[in-house]
Amino acid sequence: MTRRKKNEGGGRIGIMVSLAARNVKRHWVRSILASIGIIIGVIAIASLGMLGNSIGLLFTGFWADVGDALLITPHVAVSSGDPGDPRNILPTTLSERDIIEIEKAAGLGNRVIPMVRSTGELRFGNRVGYAMLIAVPGDDIPYLLDTEAGGYPRGAHPQIMIGTFLAEEYGIKAGNRVELDGTRARVAGIVAERGWGVDINPDYAVIVTQEWYERQYGTGAFNQVVIKVSDVEDIPAIKRSIDARLNRRKETVDILDSQEILEIFEQTMGAIQVLLLGIGAVSLFVASVSILNVMIISVTERTQEIGVLRSIGTHRNDVLLLFLIEAAVLGVVGSIIGGLLSSVVGWLISVQVATAFDELFGISAAFSILDLSILGYILFGMGFGIVASIVAGLYPAWKAARLDPIEALRYE
């Protein structure tokens, strides 16, 4: 008996699916137009999600080596503590006593690296221009930077390092001789591409030793200190120690925590992804309204057909199921096509964004449609499209199921 009921139930569902498919084919123009809305909605939500994910990957590469550093800068009245804030260019420095206190606060095992940031005129052949000049104690340079070619400058010798993008722009190679503020210097090495970091941004910079900088410019007053922390769990304790030692009586230094930057970055990227997905969801909502309209028209046109079905003993639940299946068919077809197209559209958009980042900042990233995160957005968009279609069909299906058979047969 149970098996017989299952067979009857399966047969009824099969009949409903057949009738729904027949009606979709019979009004194929209207069905295509309704599915196009779902296709566009799925493409929008999946592509925008993939775009947000791609931007996150690009910025992850952009913030290179950011997680294990503290940046200490002199406090000024309008300073925000952000090293990118243009107000921080005010001529403020850290004293020798400040450096000693910072070293004590940092403790053993953490590298304290004082440095000077300024600008210098770089000349090579017929090319001349101003570049960021970073002076670092010679022994500390290998702890901050890797070389792409050549080696590191040492002591007070007239040797420098060139950031990889600056070297590419000027056509400079390791071993070349350049002029820096009118002084001839040999290029000891080319800095490997590093991206933006909380501690040092060398890609478009000239790096010299602190010893040579003092001999050349007659001063070596530091205007920032970087602490490379061996254990990121110690960052909060080091911050508190520095704050207690240097900011006890008045604000002397600003402390920028790389972990806070990462948290802000992750929160920002999360908000961007939610916003992009929300924009895609709005387009799917509009598409579901079109399906609602199509299904209401379908119910109106097929009132007599519904009356016939009800008069021969078709249950209300079967009528309800019939129209829900029609809505689901539109949603499934549109979502599958939209998912296939979004994989291409989203990938192309991501590549274009990556190309723009590469041209502007020299930051690149590779994207693959087979990445689980990207596939996740495609599947999410398809699932959202199917659910939105079924939800849009609920009211028309309920309305069809509630029709009185006699009144439906009289309808013209």
Quick description:
This protein is an alpha+beta fold and 412 residues long. The chain has two domains: 9-63 and 263-410, no CATH class; 69-258, no CATH class. It is built from twelve helices and ten strands.
List keywords for this structure.
alpha+beta; 10 strands; 412 residues; 6-stranded mixed barrel; single chain
Helices and strands in order:
Elements (H helix, E strand, L loop, with lengths): L1 H25 L1 H35 L6 E6 L21 H11 L4 E14 L2 E10 L4 H4 L2 E4 L8 E5 H7 L6 E4 L2 E9 L13 E5 H8 L6 E5 L6 H12 L6 E5 H44 L1 H9 L4 H46 L10 H30 L3 H6 L2
Parallel strand pairs: 3-8, 5-7
Antiparallel strand pairs: 1-9, 1-10, 2-3, 2-6, 2-9, 4-7, 5-8, 6-7
Helix pairs in contact: 1-10, 2-8, 2-10, 2-11, 3-7, 8-11, 10-11
Written description of the protein model:
The protein has twelve helices and ten strands. It has 412 residues and is of the alpha+beta class. It has a six-stranded mixed beta barrel. A hairpin with a 2-residue loop joins strand 2 (111-124) and strand 3. Helix 2 runs antiparallel to helix 8 (258-301) and helix 10 (316-361) packs antiparallel against helix 11. The chain starts with a helix and ends with a helix.
Q: How does the helix and strand content classify structurally?
A: alpha+beta
β-sheet strand percentage: 15-25%
The share of residues in helices is 55-70%
| Domain tally | 2
Order of helices and strands: HHEHEEHEEHEEEHEHEHHHHH
Report the sheet with the most strands, covering strand number, pairing sense and barrel closure.
Answer: 6 strands, mixed, barrel
Q: Using the alpha-carbon principal axes, give the shape.
A: elongated
Q: With helices defined by DSSP (H or I, 4 residues minimum), what is the helix count?
A: 12
How much is the radius of gyration in Å?
33 Å
Count of extended strands: 10
